[in-house]
## 1
Amino acid sequence: MNTRPTTLGELRATGHVHRSVKAEIRHNLLARLRSGEPRFPGIVGFDGTVLPHVERALLAGHDLVLLGERGQGKSRLIRTLGGLLDEWTPIVEGCEINDHPYAPVCVRCRRLLAEAGDDLPVAWKHRDERYGEKLATPDTSVGDLIGDIDPIKVAEGRTLGDPETVHYGLVPRTNRGVFCVNELPDLAERIQVSLLNVLEERDVQIRGYNLRLPLDILLVASANPEDYTNRGRIITPLKDRFGAEIRTHYPLDVDEELVLIGQEAEVAAAVPVHLMEVIARFTRLVRESPAVDTRSGVSARFAIAATETVAASALRRSALAGEEQPVARVCDLPSIVPTLLGKVEFEVSEEGREEEVLAHLLRRATAETWRRTLGPVDLSGLLDRFDRGATVGSGELVAAADLLHRIGPVPGLSRIMNALGMEGESPGHAAAALEFALEGLYLMRRLSKDTEDGTTTYRT
């Protein structure tokens, strides 16, 4: 940064070219498309559906609104757009609205340019500082978004008609950047009107000032479907001014759900892949269930929170039972049902049966995962022990070593672990594999199970 130009004259001498924000994004997006670099890092499941629409909108220079149910990654996707800006951009030093030194638009910077000429001080702004965001809430005002009179500047002796008495809102302060309005329908309709000029005439109007402030900005909004929220709507003139409306969606298959869980969940203990698959399938079954209000959706945060809860259950067991290496097991799965109830909106007809519905879907998800992973595996070595009258007790507070001791040696354990994609044979992973095998045999009606006070007993 020390070698970058610090005055307008030095900037001109480098041959720097001034581009609008949308031209800047178009140029950088095209470069990444040609090179094969990631355009939207961290975004999962949108490659063949949502992202092509976003890319076309950006190449067209359109402002856009992302429409979709909660937890589909709308905000996450919007926040990646700042990465398509130039890494560093010049601004007039001290400018509140990031004026470009070649073409300042605010009164202060135009005056400074007239006074200093090529000696106009230049500062540099990183692209991370050129992204602005506002969650639309009912108390959001035009002053928050656009601006208002600054009483302190008036008190300093300036007249009310002086444009420099204006305190700029969030939108002008993100000039020459990307600004996001999250949950746009929640913004009061009279406040939405203040954005009309931003999207069409590209300027703002503040109070009764004779002030035209042409903005260079990419405006992006997120919204839930109006038929679900019933809290508000995007007014028709504002909708018309967005160049593109793009629908988002949840991951389309289990593999994408698994990638998302692995990427986003912050786990405090090891969670084997087969348990994450159970959670991914469980999430999809909840979304598809007729007992759940499909208009509300089931957020991706549902699966992420479930994975973190299962890991926390394993960590708790390790502390209470003295395990050295906490590994999540099937016995940790039931703990997610009561904790996730608040993330699902059920149909009115299911009132009082919410936990029962989720518990049933969790068993289905476990059975489907078992059939895919251990269905083809020979489990006769494990079943032989039960044919001889053995019983095995487990539970959320039974340590892995204790569970392995109760089961005893199992011929073919390595085949079970390999089928589940487990590497190594730590006691925690071996216990997780065997308990999953036992649970699947119960769900396939090859074994019976008694559950009481957090303990489980498997028998023939």
## 2
Amino acid sequence: MKMLNVAEARATLPAVLESVKRGEDIGIMAGNQIIQLKPIEAEPLNTPTHRGSPGAMLQALRGEPHLRSHDVDELDAAIESAKLPIHAGFILNEGK
């Protein structure tokens, strides 16, 4: 295993990452520990593959809302049903 200190790894990070992708064993000495670098397969965040995945959620947040008129009507009804009654007098004088 090729060993680098943190400063060496930082200075040559792109080359270090390419070496690791080609299969070279590289470790970084951080304090009294060795951190071994190795590639793993990962799903890109910008590629939604299934509902609820990080990529799908980011895409939904960045996109335009897709509301139907029924959705808006349902939201309006929920807001109306949750409103408090209107008080005509001074609220602190109630019950006196």
## 3
Amino acid sequence: MFRYIFSISAVFLIVMGCSSDPSANYQEISLLKHGFPINILAPDSPVVKTFDLIVKKDITVQKGDDYSVQIFMGDASIYDPKKIKDRLLEDLKANNQYFDQVVLEEDHGFVYKTLIDSLNPNYGFNLVKIQGDKEFIFQTGIMGSFSEEQALRMYKAVKNEKK
């Protein structure tokens, strides 16, 4: 009987360990040493690449195949994140022929679905933050394909929100 209970307990712990939310292990990281005065949640030891696009700076924070966040930083011309988010969403709908639907929409950001064909949905996000005179636009990294769960997890991570 004890062996039976032990076996069931072991299976339960293994299943719970495998199905745990990876974002529970995310840590707050500062991007200041890369020239971005912001913090985000990310997996341990991500690869960080920066690019200077003259009028904007671009940074990508990546770890494995399920975490890739790209951030653009530039001088803010509009100090209303909702207006910037609305413009980004309007541009996405008008210019991405594969746009399918908005999965989540908030004042500062949204998660969306693109559909190249019915078998290959891909999810992405955009989030806007204004800090001082700087505008930050967060989005899924351009390399990779992401599930809805992965996109939502990254969206919450850049909002610096666990779970």
## 4
Amino acid sequence: MNSEFKLTPVEWEIMENIWNMGGKPSTREVMEFAYPNGEKAYTTIQTIMNILVKKGLLTAEKIGLVNFYRPTRSRDEIVKSEMKQMVSRIFNGSIPALANFLLNSDEVGLDEIQAIKKLINEKENELKGNQE
């Protein structure tokens, strides 16, 4: 199975809801959970879920007349795949270039920088501990 995945925004939306629901929801259950006010048609959701099955991100199990779906990958696996592709494509695979871009964006404030420093220190200590 392909380890690189690329989801469209609406596919992300559907997958996020399926991950949040847990279990093996049907199309109708996903629709009612994700779009309680009928923002998307049943047939639209069914089509997207069928595409996700073809991409290998969902499996479908037919019970009676209803398909029930289960994710084949965790959210973290898909995030990792998409981030790896994005860093490769936009930053030539350079994590420091990505970090530099993020740190120099207007949205990063002092609180975020302090939180990032803490994460970096924790990761550094973890890696140092693995070397001993």
